[in-house]
Amino acid sequence: MKPETLPPLDVDALWRRCLHIVRQRRLGEPPQDGPALTWEASQGFALGDEWSAEAAELFTLVKPLLDRTSGSTPWVIGQLGQSLNGCIATRSGDANYINGAEVLLHLHRLRALSDAVVVGAATAGLDNPQLTTRRVEGDNPVRVVIDPALRLPASLRVFSDRAAPTLLVCDAEREAEAASRVGADQVLGVPRLTGPDGIVDVRALQAALAGRGLRVLFVEGGGVTVSHFMRQGCMDRLHLSVAAVVIGDGRPGLSLPQDLSMGDCARPASRVYRMGGDVLWDLDLRAATSSAGTASTST
Ligand SMILES: NC(=O)c1ccc[n+]([C@@H]2O[C@H](COP(=O)([O-])OP(=O)(O)OC[C@H]3O[C@@H](n4cnc5c(N)ncnc54)[C@H](OP(=O)(O)O)[C@@H]3O)[C@@H](O)[C@H]2O)c1
């Protein structure tokens, strides 16, 4: 008699394993082997042969998040969904429907795998986002809003819906003022958060969040916030989704004010994924080279 061949394990089965890994991490438990998914300290998680091609592709994309352990140093993944000409919203701030449903699903997955989702004040004010994991199974991350000028109203959903823990981040000196608006439990005052130039010290923010046990950060936007993380060398990975749309004179995505010769420009190691009609670039910013010619991998 022929041995029975089992069907490959699918994306849903992988996602359940991903959630289990992240819950263990959040509980401070060390990573562990499980069926068809092994852990080695030097390599992180690895898949067995039992998985479908689709599950294997999702695993490759999210493995860097799964490999974080509870004691790891802070680690940051950012995302931007942009037009062909590098805009993340129209000039008035409309970012709806740049990317398709597949990219949105992916964003919710990244939220579920992170300890905290971070947005800038402009995104919070213009989009009034919920920043929850409602499109996927999985726990909500802590919602972090960088609002050094305390310009945001308390009526925004992140501050009022209590769907997930929220932290408004401001300078420690303005903590009491922020608390009077949104409640003390929703404020994180960081000593010396902003310098005289008004720029938020992203490392000070990371350290304060790590003090709350939030080490795996998903910086969801907008362009100004993601760019500050990159400029200050505080971003490890970037998922850049490009949609086949052209936005005239819109809000810029990455903005890095260096005037470098082409040979000195960073070329991050990359993989490319199709997501419906969009193309997602998975950029490993810690494996950047400054010379031309690093090959990218396409799936
Ligand atoms: N397509 C996408 O993927 C995507 C994702 C998210 C948002 N969006 C869109 O992007 C637009 C908003 O993005 P944006 O780039 O204009 O702004 P943003 O990054 O959302 O917010 C920028 C603001 O956040 C505060 N901030 C955050 N980090 C800072 C830092 N390191 N230093 C100083 N201030 C910091 C500052 O507030 P103050 O000025 O008050 O000091 C700054 O002006 C919206 O239209 C939204 O719809 C698109």
Describe, in plain words, how this protein is organized in 3D.
By secondary structure, the protein is an alpha/beta fold. It has a domain at 1-72. Helices cover 27% and strands 26% of the residues. The strands form three sheets. Strands 8-7-6-5-9-3-10-13-12-14 form a ten-stranded mixed β-sheet, with helices on both faces. It has a two-stranded antiparallel ribbon with strand order 1-2. A hairpin with a 2-residue loop joins β12 and β13 (278-289). The longest helix is centred in the first third of the chain and has 16 residues, at 11-26. The mean pLDDT is 94. Bound molecules: NADP nicotinamide-adenine-dinucleotide phosphate. NADP nicotinamide-adenine-dinucleotide phosphate is lined by residues 80-81, 88-89, 93, 95, 98, 119-123, 126-127, 146, 148-149, 151, 199-200, 202, 220-225, 228, 251.
What would a concise description of this structure say?
With 299 residues, the protein is α/β, with parallel strands linked by helices.
